[in-house]
Design a protein that fits this description.
The protein contains five helices and three strands; from the N terminus they run βααββααα. The chain is an alpha+beta fold. A hairpin with a 2-residue loop joins strand 2 and strand 3. It starts with a strand and ends with a helix.
């Protein structure tokens, strides 16, 4: 992760856009706030990944076979903050 101030970003925008394109995380600090520079994602790349699709399919099959567990409301709260 690279943390820069807004002046540095303004002076070297191309450099930081190129870094983000190379999957580097860039955070811009301005006064008391921080901003993460991220590319716009047209498609949700996570779910387009064939490896992820395969893991989801295997997980769904395991659930159909009764190999899953049910979390209590308290466990969900502790794990996911729901």
């Amino acid at each position: 992760m690279i943390v820069i101030n807004s002046r540095e970003f303004r002076e070297n925008q191309k450099k930081y856009f190129d870094l983000v394109d190379q999957n580097e995380m860039v955070v811009i600090k301005r006064k008391n706030k921080s901003y993460e520079l991220t590319p716009e994602i047209k498609n949700e790349r996570f779910f387009d990944d064939p490896r992820i699709q395969e893991r989801i399919s295997k997980s769904l099959q395991s659930l159909k076979e009764g190999k899953g567990i049910k979390l209590t409301d308290q466990e969900q709260e502790e794990l996911f903050g729901l």
